[in-house]
Amino acid sequence: MRVTLTILCAVLVFSSCEKDQQNEVARKFISFDLDSIIVVAENPAAVISTANLTDTDPNNDIDKLTITATGINDEQVNITLLGSTEGLTKGSFYSQDGNSMSVYYPNVNLSQIANQRVGTLTFSITNVKDSLIEGSFTGTLVDTTGALTTRNATYGFVRAIVRSN
């Protein structure tokens, strides 16, 4: 009886040590270095608005991806990418083409932006798999009020699940 119990315990221990066969879900986040200040925002919302060519409004004739997230210090990050005739796929997106990024600091009511008029943004979509999108970015963010100095965003990375609008 004691031998049977020992064998049963050994089988249970070894079977519980097997590696699970489930796929791990990738962590979703935005992170970047903003002149030595690390901004990390978990679970960003990424919403794609597809082009509507059936109406007379020329402002909605291209695909648009909007990624928003709130950082651990309450900074609000917003990235907007405009599609081309092929939609939003792997490739590079630049602020001079209408793409933008902003970081809003609600505690002091200030924001820094990079868009077609001020600052710079280079965003590269590096991987698209099903609804998961990954990308990297760099840029120069400007405070148009002059209260904050211009800051460089480097080592930027985004991983998000894209949902349709």
Features:
165 residues, mainly beta
Q: Give the total of domains.
A: 1
> What low-confidence regions span 5 or more consecutive residues with pLDDT below 50?
none
Rough outline:
globular
Helix content: under 10%
The gyration radius over C-alpha positions equals: 22 Å
Count of DSSP strands: 11
| Beta-strand fraction estimate | over 45%
User: How much is the average pLDDT?
Assistant: 85
Separate helix tally: 1
Separation, N- and C-terminal Cα atoms: 64 Å
What does this structure look like?
With 165 residues, this protein is mostly beta strands. The protein has one domain. The protein contains one helix and eleven strands, in the order H-E-E-E-E-E-E-E-E-E-E-E. Strands 1, 2, 3, 4, 5, 6, 7, 8, 9, 10 and 11 form an eleven-stranded mixed beta sheet that branches. A hairpin with a 4-residue loop joins strand 7 and strand 8. The chain is globular. The mean pLDDT is 85.
Concise summary:
With 165 residues, this protein is mainly β. The chain has one domain.
List the helices and strands and how they pair.
Blueprint: H1 2-16, E1 29-34, E2 37-42, E3 45-49, E4 64-70, E5 76-82, E6 91-94, E7 100-105, E8 110-114, E9 120-129, E10 132-141, E11 151-164
Parallel strand pairs: 3-11
Antiparallel strand pairs: 1-2, 1-11, 3-4, 4-5, 5-7, 6-9, 7-8, 9-10, 10-11
